[in-house]
Amino acid sequence: MNTELLCSLSTRLDTPSYIFDLDEFKKRADLVRKYFGDKTGLCFSIKANPFLLGRLPEVFDKIEVCSPGELTVCEKTGVDMSKIIFSGVNKTAKDVHRAADDEVGTFTAESRLHVKLINDEGVARGKVFPVLLRVTDVKGGSQFGMEEPEVLDIIKNRADFKGIEIVGVHYFTGTQKKKAKPIVRELDYLSELIDRVENDLGFTIERVEYGTGLAVDYFDKDADKLEEERLASVSEKIRELSEKASLTVEMGRFFAAPCGYYLTRVIDAKTNYDINYVIVDGGLNQLKYDGQLQGMQIPRIVHLKDNPAKGDVRPWTLCGSLCTTADILARNAEFDTLEIGDILVFCRTGAYSVTEGMAVFLSREMPVVSVYSEKDGLQVIREMLYSDVFNTPAI
Q: What is the pLDDT at residue 308?
């Protein structure tokens, strides 16, 4: 989204505000499809940005849902429930029952308890639910998934479960992987696991849901180039695995990050002991970059102003509205004549930023959320939440 368009859209929105560019979102999804090939399914993990859910490009085959709240978003948005992979480390009998009512396409099981809960629900309904068994990280494990021996034991004793069909495995070990090596190693492991299960247990792993964890570069001016190179570096191995099983690549951050813009307005400006500060009406309660610490790294920030530039370029420390010294969005970011009323647009905020911050700290107003496409223009999908409550006179 160029500066001229941002300027135009900013006049129609209150601040703080998010704009998600649906055209950029589709462009990124199409780029992934180009490198991974038509045989590889694509799954959008909606925890990265649930506001995009009702506007997913057709290129997405699956939707990963990890909580009852996300399932509610799916229900209200009217998505195709058969596309849902109902995942998440915390599943209760109530959650499974509700997901079954919604007729989700696939369940994942991260423990023997999950296997039991899903199987019991299937038996009670006289149905058989497709299940992906999640294997934990073979490099050391985590709270997610099960050790491989346990997964193999469940497969070995699959005849004991009348309410589920084990259709494959789920494997995701973490995010922000900048190098191809760990991803290639994981793909090799999955390929070897498919062969071993076939040879040792006589069972065919038909489906693999794999999260690459491909990194997003928030603070590099060559981010798009670096990220495309990452795609290319793992594409051959992805295509190889897609020939061996029905492969779905699950990502959230990598798909959505480039499409987001966070607009916040300068409310005050001052200099304390030779350091120039501005206070903006947003803050770290709403804006979060992975890897950002006390504003030490500077993302791309677009400066929108009504008054012409004065050639007075200075370093500024950008601070939010919270009563904490931690609320620093960037240090030593250089701008020409920052003034009250100017708008700063933080780019590449399409993933997690809108949901990961300390949203309710200090009860600051929640940001407006909107989407934009060249076809449909600007559409506000959430107004500010508190204004009617806080501005209502006492009776």
A: 82
